[in-house]
Fold this protein.
Amino acid sequence: MDSQINRYSKQLIIFNSIFILIWLTISIFPFLWTLWGSFKVKADFFTRSDWTYALSGFNTLLETGATATIKAYIESWTEGEFWRATMNTMIVTISVVTISLFLGTLGAYALSRSTFKYTFYILIAALIFRAMPHITLVSGYLFPFFQLNIWGILPTTIIVLVAINQPFTLWLLYSFFKTVPKELDESALIDGCSYFQAFRYIIMPVMWPGVVTAGLFSMMLAYNDFTVTALLLNQENYTMVPKINAYLGTIEYGGNYMWAVSSVVSATAPLFMIIWFFQRQLISGLTAGAVKG
Amino acid sequence: MPHKTFFWFFFPTGLAMILFIGLPIVSSFFQSLHIENQQILMEVENCDPFGCTTNVRVDVEATEKLKEENPLGRFNGFGTYLDRNHLAFDEIGEAWSASSSIGEFKDIVLNLPFYKALLFTLTFCFAVTPPVIFFGFIVALSINTLTKRLKGLIVFGTILPMIVTPLIGSLVLFWMIDSQGIIGASIKILLGDPNLSLKSSSTLTWITLIIYGIWHNTPFAFIVFYAALQTVPQDPIEAALIDGASRFQRVRYIVIPHLYPVATFIMLICLMDNFRVFEPIIGFSAEGVAQSLSWMIYQDLRNENKMLFGSAGATSMLTIIGIAILLTPVLLRTWKEFRTER
């Protein structure tokens, strides 16, 4: 029977294929174009006279002697200190993911196993916290952080990102923990385990899909963040995204556009690769809670 | 689970949320009630052979001292909320009595920074959301008809605009649309207008930002719709097929009604997320013509030497009120869901 429902007319298939092709072009082409352009010089990628220069690499040939160059990459990584930004991003991302998962699994497990009414209010509060624009929170951080003299350093930013990330992680893991049958840890409790032992040895081993999904979202938040990192870190501690913004506008780097273009490629490539591997988890996380209604 | 065990399990995450989400909101509010210290002026008498002149100068030492004693500034009550950069009631009142027509009044009000930003933020929210839902649905429908082998690859391509951070996404588009980029330059040649540029007109900039918003948000709508499509019951579709319904009719009368709740969910999340629009404005360097509420806060805090905590706090509070209004339907929905579950 299934085949009959899914039998489509020829026109529909053709129309469908064309539509998907157009759609893919819109979503992918800008990235491919940036990748292509990152190997050119500024006069080609941002040309006033003739955009075909960007394809042929006319000025790139004049300036460097070849139609493609990795000058922008080398300069931004060395002179522009993008290596430092990359390292900072790695430190921030790894710490945020680890700490968030640790706190999040403990909290979400408790929320999913407690039968008292306050869990409901906690989850509602988490939903409200999740909706707060990050910039409004940052405006609350800056003054106390200056007073305490903890502004500008990585650990502060890491803790802030972990906290900002908690509401979403809690909701996500909560919905995953709900799918693990209660009987599993109840039998462990009867056998004499403490709650923590039941959590650690019985529940966590079957929770890996959920943990990976939550980790993926924490990673994306930490890796992609601009608002918090741009305002809470000082120049030397910038992560990749604020660093790219710094290349564009500050006096120090003098609006060095090609550095920004090549750094955008350096920053997005690893992200795309990770998402390629964990696509399934990403989608399951986005739809958890959405489709039930 | 006993209260005590629950407490210890939940303590770390609860503490983190209270310290870094709850308290900052309170701190923001507290800041918004204060305003920067005034500079202390002093009169200095300069005497030279030709006579004495008195100059008014800033007493740097005393100003510094005051700042040290009272770093948050002086108490200002709700003054900051009412000043020209925020709610500006006085200016609106003046504009009302001074302007002869509604149009003139509207122009004056929408040129006040807060209302200008509010107008852009709301326009962005409400212009982006419907196309996002529409395109998300169409893309989900068409990808759903593909064979399994193709799906993985195409879904990956589709979600790329969503997984890059808005700043990078907008930069990538900006570099193409800018008057020196591939699309911008081609349009210039096509229309034969060498001065045409994104920055030349505010309407064009707004449209570009909205297009960016649709590009960035559609993948989210797509994923949610796509997952929901898998849950559409097959029996009614089969029955409709036997009754001779066309594919369009099947989608219109069976699939779409099934997806209504999902569409409302996407709409609410989309409105809420876009209310914080901020990074695209920086990416497109559109500060001149398009300001959002979040951007106003960023602008107050950006300058390390002279941060306007009071002003940023007040805008933050007003933004939170806006979010609260948008959040109410989501909360009600969750509330109901919980009630029915128990």
